[in-house]
Amino acid sequence: MEFKANIMDEKAMQRATTRIAHEIIERNKGVEEIVLVGIKTRGIPFAKKIAERIKAIENVDMQIGILDITLYRDDLTQANENPILNSTDIPFDITNKTVVLVDDVLYTGRTVRAAMDAIIDIGRPKAIQLAVLIDRGHREFPIRADFVGKNVPTSKEEIVRVQFDEIDGNNGVSINQ
Questions:
Q1: Does residue 56 form part of some domain?
Q2: By mean pLDDT, which of 70-74, 102-106, 115-119, 143-147 is the weakest?
Q3: For the chain, what is the domain count?
Q4: What is the span of the domain harbouring residue 46?
Q5: Of the candidates 12, 1, 45, 56, which has an alpha carbon nearest to the alpha carbon of residue 167?
Q6: pLDDT per position as a tens digit, 86-100
Q7: What's the CA gap between 148 and 168, in Å, rounded?
Q8: Domain with 138 in it: what CATH number?
Q9: Cα Rg for the chain, rounded, in angstroms?
């Protein structure tokens, strides 16, 4: 994997996260009936960062869930006959709540479709919204993010690499080829 360009540094990620937090609050007229659900793996630290910003703005502790979509993937048989299952951990009722799914990169829409299937199996939310740090295009499903940190036009050959301190030891977004 060859480095091509940095597209967000830590400060840009912080600004995008703050803007997304404000947009979530504004669109939903507060956060009383909102829960955040991070899609494994890098959706989880991003959801936590959004929750921190909302706490600073609204002084409300957000409920954060963890969603593993492994069994909902439509390429499961192609990927691995013995998938490694991580655990979904949504320790609260999502019925009649607005669930904000959080992920690092929106690409084909297949991960989000799988996440929506998983959420519906857990409960019946009032609405599902989508927050992503990077939208890189190339949709294969009619899915659009409600909250986007940055739109980054890419070729299908390029790889968008998002890094979070909690997983990778630093924060940043780069394009590699």
A1: yes
A2: 70-74
A3: 1
A4: 10-75+85-153
A5: 45
A6: 689 999 999 999 999
A7: 22
A8: 3.40.50.2020
A9: 16
